[in-house]
Each structure stands twice: as C-alpha cells, then as structure tokens.
Amino acid sequence: MKRIGFIGLGTMGKPMAANLLRKGYPVTVYNRSSGKTDELAELGAEVAGTIADAVRESEVIFTMLSDDAALLDVFHSEHGILSAVQPGQTIIDSSTVAPATSRRLFEELANHFVDFLDAPVTGSKPAAEAGTLTFMVGGSEDVFRDHYELFLALGSKVLYLGPSGSGSYAKLAHNTMVGINALSLMEGLSIATKAGINPEHFLEIVQSGGAASKQVDLKGMKIVNRDFSNQFSVKLMLKDLLLATDLTKQFQLPAPMLHNAVTLFQMGLAKGFGEEDLSSVIRCYEEWMGREVAKHTVPTPQIAEEAAVLSGRERRRAERVSLNIKLHLSVYQWEQEGSFSGQNIEGTLRDLSESGLQISSSFPLAKDMFVVIHFPQEADLPPITGRIVRIEAGQDEFRYGCMLSGLPPYVRIKLEQYIESRR
Fold first, then answer.
1. Are strands 133-138 and 121-122 parallel, antiparallel or unpaired?
2. For 334-354, how does the pLDDT look when each residue is reduced to its tens digit (9 = 90+)?
3. Is the Cα dihedral 105, 1, 14, 179 positive or negative?
4. Which pLDDT band, with edges at 50, 70 and 90, does 383 fall under?
5. d(Cα 299, Cα 285) in Å, to the nearest integer?
6. CATH (residue range 170-289)
7. What's the pTM value of the predicted model, to 2 decimals?
8. Which residues are in coiled coils (predicted)?
9. Nearest CA-CA partner of 184 in 270, 277, 282, 275
C-alpha cells in the first residue's frame, strides 16, 4: 500500500486520515496544533514533527486546509512541502481554494517533477466520518487513474473533471448552491414559524415535496434542536461564497442570489457565529421576527400586541430626535486569497427616525454595506444590524443613514425606551 502523508487535521482532515488508517494505509500526520494528532496516533498513525518530515516519509501527501493563505503557507514556509518534495511524489489537495491557487501549485510542483491534483470534496463532516465523500478532481487524468483506489478509500464517488483547477471551479459552484439552499431553508422555516406552524411538521412537508434538499436533511433538525455544533462553519461558508463572487466578476456573470447569500453570512459572522455551524445564521432571522425556530413553537399574541403598540408610536413620531450617543460599529471587509478581516470603529448616534438611525464616524464606509451597531452596556440592547443607505460627507466626518429593516418589535421598543431616557 502507498505510504500516505496527511497535513491538516481539522473538521474534515482528521476523519479522512482516520479512515485511511482503518483501511490499512500507513499514514504520517502533521497538524500545527498537536492535540489533534493524539487520537490518530492511537489508531496507528506516525506523528511528524514538521511538515517536511511528513512529506519525506510519504509517496502521496493529502492537504486539507481552511483557505488559500493557510494552504500556500504549508507549501512555502521554511520547513514546508516545497522544501522536502521528491520527484515521483503526488500531492492531492482537498482544500476549497481559488482555482488560480490550484493551478499555481500544479505548476510549481511540476518544476520539481511532482504531480498535483486539486480534489475538493462534498459531504461535510458526517460524510468524512462515514467515508462517503464525493471527490471532484482536476489535473492529469493519468495521475487521477493511478490514485483512483485511494480516493475510494475515502469516498463513495470520484469524478475526474478536467485540467488543473477544474476541481476547485466545481467546488465553488457547488458551495454557492449550498449557501443559497441553506438560506432558503432558514427563510422558509422562519415564514412558517412566524405564522405559528410547528417547524417539525413543516420540515416533514418540505422533505416530501419539491423543496426537499440535502440541506433540509442535514440542517433542518439541527436548527429545530438548537444544535449549532460545527459541521461546516459560517466563516468557511462565507470564505467560499466570496471566492465564488470573485469568479463571477472574472466571468462578468451576474449572480444576484450569490450576492444576497454573501450579505447574510457576513451578518452571521459579524454577530459572532463564525466558528459555529452555518445553520446558526437562522438566529439573524429569529432576531428579525422576534422568536426562535424551535420545537413546539406556538403563536405568541404578545408579539402582535408589541407590534401594534410600536406601530402607534412610529405614526406619532413626526420629527427626528437629536442625539449624541457613542457607539461601536463592527465592519467586515474582504481581502485576498480567501481571507477577510474585521475591525471595530468608533461612531456616534446622531438621530433616530421611524425607519432607521443616523450615525457619524470618521471612518469611510460604502453604500449598501452592512454594519453591526453595538450600543453602550447601559442600553441592554443586542447588537443591531443596519444597512448604509445614505452617505453625507462633512469636513471631519461622514454621516450615514442606516436602515434597520426587520428589527424585532421587542428590540425596537427597547431601543425607543433607551433613546427616550437619553433625551
């Protein structure tokens, strides 16, 4: 049997390496945080001290990293893959990265007479554990055929798609659909729940009708059971959607549903759900409608009463209320190579109207950008998401009109009460 190296033992990599060990392959593993290698060592894996050590001991090396930057670092660092590769080896990358990154590594390794396949997977953590992944493979077809049995040790379906980068293209197209489908599930569940329908019963209807999907099977009951343990995180879902957005720009291809999905997952990240399962974004919808999607949901008359009270207050509000309340704003920005960064900026709440807030800051923001507004602790308010709909540039600061559409009635009432106390 071929000697295998496995680098990257996260949510997907660890169960994949375990399956290779169970199938009898000799496996050498490496991970930056050593604790993830303990269970694999008990299964018989050799634990390498460096990436280079794992490469030297192996005929075939799998990599499974979180993003482009992490993958490139594994290849190019001082004791990385390129420092130890030998002619005749094969590297199989199952990370989800930009096709340009896959093609770059293919060309770099060819200079060392090393073969490279981009072979991302579908199926998330349960399929990795069960050995039922689907591989989509780009690179040399001859190299693909030479390692076909190795793929079948980890998955139930393996498809060769074409030259280097083809697997990565397919994975980003696939994950575009995953993100959109997951949000369609959340949106449908929210509509049903707001109408007072038991979400468990609604899922039964969906699974037997035209809206049935893998996302319904995987995420429906996770949402209802409030189980947001990570199978595929919000952070990684957003990373993949942003990579797909870059592709649509290159192709000059409009993708309105993709762009809406990006916005919603950005909101989930801004609210602190980044390391949780992508299904946790349902909490954005729950904030908007003022109730949870959970077992035995029943209509709540209090919500309607609060909405009626609020409606009366808003109709009576004819003038804006001048304010000067210090705020913090969370802003997330897309960078390069599959990464993004967030930062907190200072702001001031200037006034309040029936449709939103006006906030000032010295930090430049863009129209239609979503920001998360953090009020002073004394306000006892949750973070509130606003969309920049108007920008007025002054001499020393910008004034931003932020629309708060979808704010739950009970949160709006608390916000009004806080504002009244500060007048």
1. antiparallel
2. 555 555 566 889 999 988 766
3. positive
4. confident
5. 16
6. 1.10.1040.10
7. 0.74
8. none
9. 282
CA–CA dist 99, 111 (Å, integer): 19
**C-alpha to C-alpha distance for 382 and 290, rounded to whole angstroms:** 12
330, 347 in Cβ contact below 8 A?
no
Contact 378, 108 (CB under 8 A): no
230 CB-near residues (< 8 Å, 6+ apart): 11, 125, 275, 276, 277
Provide the token pair at 55. Answer: 């490469």
The two three-digit tokens of residue 222, written as one number: 């996770």
Catalytic residues: 171
Question: Looking at the domain 302-422, which fold is it?
Answer: Thrombin, subunit H (2.40.10)
What SS3 state is found at 332? strand
Fold of the domain spanning 4-162: Rossmann fold (3.40.50)
Q: Which tens digits make up the pLDDT trace of 296-328? A: 644 445 444 444 444 444 444 434 455 789 999
pLDDT category at 189 given cuts 50, 70, 90 is very high
pLDDT on residue 312: 46
Question: Do the Cβ atoms of 46 and 56 come closer than 8 Å?
Answer: no
Q: Which two tokens stand for residue 11?
A: 């949510």
Sign of CA dihedral 93, 16, 136, 97: negative
